[in-house]
Amino acid sequence: MSSRIRIATRQSALALWQAEHVAALLRAAHPGIDVELVPMTTRGDRILDRPLAEIGGKGLFLKELEVAMLERRADIAVHSYKDVPMDVEAEFTIGAVLERADPADAFVSVNHARLDQLPEHAHVGTSSLRRQAQLRAVRPDLTIGDLRGNVNTRLAKLDAGDYDAIILACAGLERLGLQSRIRRKLLAPDWLPAAAQGAIAVEHRIGDSRIAELLKPLHDPATARCVDAERAMTRALQGNCEVPIAAFCIETDAGLHLDGLVGGAATGELVRANAAGIDPESIGKHVAGKLLEGGAGKFLHV
Prior knowledge:
Number of strands: 13
Helix content: 25-40%
Radius of gyration: 19 Å
Distance between the termini: 48 Å
Largest sheet: 5 strands, mixed
Structural class: alpha/beta
Number of helices: 11
Shape: globular
């Protein structure tokens, strides 16, 4: 078996951390392996003046990395799993899902300790329609502004006074050593994260048995079961970043428990549903069905 593996990654600090993390795990699992990072800038990184929903969604963060794999310039690509489209392109597969980090969203502010303590009409930054819907549900008075860029760029805008608060993922802040910026965690079931938030996915060319074998030690089955249920729900709703959909699954002694949410980013109206079960695909579809029965279709245009 060849002892070389090349990792395609975005060039943001968080993406590079994730790629280096995968590289370290590969080196630990396969002593002597030569791991090389292949950093690149994606279209999603270059276009920062428009919301993702307007320019093609989070899949824009994957395309260049997938091209590099097809052209044999890279063997795998490392992604935040929440950025991976619900249906992976036919030429690729997810070879490993790493153990999940903290899946929660974080309330981040310089002057305010909690979301409910923000002054009336405070300016809150987030590019996520899912976060916007949940913000408006609990604080309809807030002024919400679109906020894109890497984690440090967003924090710089907050520190400059452009926003009274911003919402970020706890996992990203913690991976960059910025956990001190978290003023309050927004926790399930009251506040739900994006499907697969906190999980890292490793993608490779389908049929590449060498890479599949190398990735086996990195795969965490418990995380995979939970995020598979979350993604199955989102897939059944035909969801993408243009629709405020949230999902969070935990594993209990009795099996899987999945909470799902669909909402209106402009109104803050939310439809919630949950269910328990054993099979991730089945429970995801079941919760999707309950959401549609509850009226989620009007937010999904189905």
